[in-house]
Amino acid sequence: MHRFSLRQLEYLVACIDHGSTARAAIALNVSQPTISIAVTKLEDQLGVQLLRRHHSQGVSATASAEDILPSARALLAHATDLQRQVTATGGEMVGELRLGSFTTLASSVLPRLVNAVSTEHPDIHLRISEGTQDELLEGLNSGQLEMALLYDLNLPDDIQKIQLLELTPHVVLPHDHALIGQSEIDLADLATEPFILLDVPPSRDYFLGLFKTAGLTPNIVHSSPSLELVRGLVGYGLGFSLLVTRPTGDMTYDGQPLCIRPLKNEANKSAIVLARHKELRATQLMTLITELAQNKVMKPTIPDRLTT
């Protein structure tokens, strides 16, 4: 049986994350030779090369290291959780959690969660990453992220998810659009209208799928991965859009008013979930963050009124 230490795994992960033994040494407050010797010994014990050493350009993970990296991260997280349980004396929870967020949720939902954590558990630090769904799933798979806020759209089977909130897509119209007199809007009434698409996966496929299900083809005139650019273009009357994320104020960044209407007979709701990889056992910290998200953060703050 191979004998290796948690410290060796910690050094290996730090080298991969920081891209060099020198930066890893600084981050862990140890000497560079200490890290180099420990990782070399780990390679000898496992019988595989784990790091590629690039002259004057740091290090990178080999295929063997990539294979064990998720398990190594999980083992280190479990060890930290065990130490936390052993040393706990009824005091405040302490620790760090690597949390990712889908780009549109980062501005509309994530600040509330960070505030709740900071207010109720000031000794917990959230290391935040923002990105697309593919980037966040890659982070969950590699272990660089422990949890992520995502829309429940096309998530793979190896991702465990806890639903936090269910939302219905809505129509975003210029304030003087001819359809603002309707309390809800049929997608068929929008088929020939200029459509401004939020072009970021999986949102793109979700919104185009609404048209496809209805047997319609949208008239796309602009597209952007930026939620606020899409809203801004609508604000200047360049078209309409379909969105799920709705900021509190129905106004663009530069002050153009928007009109929001629900889709008529729309059954394709979208759920916000807190996701983690199934192979990663939930730590005390992850459980606490989940409870905060469920009980104190994920409550609709957008009024049900229609804004004209």
Q: What can you see in these coordinates?
A:
The chain has three domains: 6-75, Winged helix-like DNA-binding domain superfamily/Winged helix DNA-binding domain (Arc Repressor Mutant, subunit A), CATH 1.10.10.10; 92-165 and 271-297, D-Maltodextrin-Binding Protein, domain 2 (3-Layer(aba) Sandwich); 169-268, 3-Layer(aba) Sandwich (D-Maltodextrin-Binding Protein, domain 2), CATH 3.40.190. Helix content is 40%, strand content 23%. The chain is built from ten helices and twelve strands. It has helices at 6-18, 21-28, 32-46, 63-87, 103-108, 110-120, 133-142, 203-213, 227-235, 284-297, and strands spanning 51-54, 58-61, 95-102, 124-131, 147-151, 159-167, 170-174, 194-198, 219-224, 241-243, 258-262, 270-277. Strands 4-3-5-12-6 form a five-stranded mixed beta sheet, with helices on both faces. α1 crosses α4 and α6 crosses α10 (284-297). It is elongated and about 70 Å long. Residues 300-308 have low confidence and may be disordered.
